[in-house]
Amino acid sequence: MNWNKLLVIFKHLSIWILAILFLRNSSLTWGWAVSSKYDTLIPQLYGAATNAVVFYFTSFYLIPRFFNTHRKREFYAYSTLFLMAISLVEMQADQYVGALYQNRAYLETKGLTWPERLLEGMIYILPINLFYYIIAFVYRIPFDRQQQHEREQQLQREKLEAELKFLKAQIHPHTLFNGLNSVYHLIDFDPPRAKGLVWNLSNALRYQLYESSERFVPLEKEIAYLRQYIALQEVRVDEDAVVEVSFSGEEEGEWLIAPLLFTPFIENAFKYISHHPAKEDNKITVRLEMEGKRLFFECVNTVDANAPRISEVGGIGLENVRSRLQLLYGVDYQLALKNGPGRFEAKLSLPLKAL
Q1: What distance in Å separates the CA atoms of residue 122 and residue 94, rounded to the nearest whole number?
Q2: What is the pLDDT of residues 55-94, one digit of tens each?
Q3: Phi, psi at residue 337, to the nearest 5°?
Q4: How far apart are CA 344 and CA 309, in angstroms?
Q5: Taking a C-beta distance cutoff of 8 angstroms, is the pair 292, 332 a contact?
Q6: Which domains does the chain have, with CATH numbers?
Q7: Which residues make beta-bridge pairs with 296?
Q8: Element spanning 5, H or E
Q9: Beta strand pairing call for 294-302 and 283-291
Q10: How many CB atoms lie within 10 A of CB 194?
Q11: What SS3 class is residue 283?
Q12: pTM
């Protein structure tokens, strides 16, 4: 049993003990008001026990079993029978104990018939039990709503994690395929560089498979991964395009960011780079910088004049990127895509989390 459950039990016991102490020092116990305190102890104890039975039976059986499952007719029928039965038991206990002590509960009803004693007892006992029945509702309904809210939040978190894992899983094969293609192009005429690319590919895959499993990762690790990823992609356009990379933020302190958000845009730039005769006319620019507590990413690439509009980002679709951003940042991000003449621009602004 954990400490939270023990604390709840302690609170409940304390409330019932305080209720008994309150009755011991008051004249609220019907039929025992003129008796000595020794005489009132017994009815106060079993009276409190009866009230506790009403409260807990209603809270933990009737409401969860019938009321919360929309079996309202059964709920009200069983509630009525239960309240009548337990009030009758308490009334009979009053008569029995009253006879032992010759107290008011017994003496004032001694000459009455059983139906008259029943009516007399119910007038006083049933309202008290009904009061604790209502208190059970006041306690249980908000409790159930809070639990339902927590369950819904937990399900939402689990759904979110599942969606993020699914979306990130779609990115992993692209890194592997593109990296292997880059190594293949170099392995015959530049083995040392091919060896370095294998190392970059290994680190990039390790990051994607293991370190990026968290919802947020250190910014410096994400930037290191992007450098390795771009090095793998550059081989594809080495002799045909100019690649400019400008990253800042590694030295700005410890910040957290969602992993693998920028990769699809960079892959998109290398995939749709223009094919102009002059190398300097084919250009890819990747920029990352911090401003305050926000990170600004920009990826621009030239495209051929007759190229179709780019509807896919990184081969996994624009919806993938937007879905991840929405799941991770809600409305606290800005994504702007511009498919203009001769160039494609992707700009993304995100809030950073302190480590």
Answers
A1: 12
A2: 889 988 999 888 887 888 999 999 999 998 998 888 777 7
A3: -115, 130
A4: 9
A5: no
A6: 3-154 (no CATH), 170-354 (3.30.565.10)
A7: 289, 349
A8: helix 3-24
A9: antiparallel
A10: 17
A11: strand
A12: 0.55
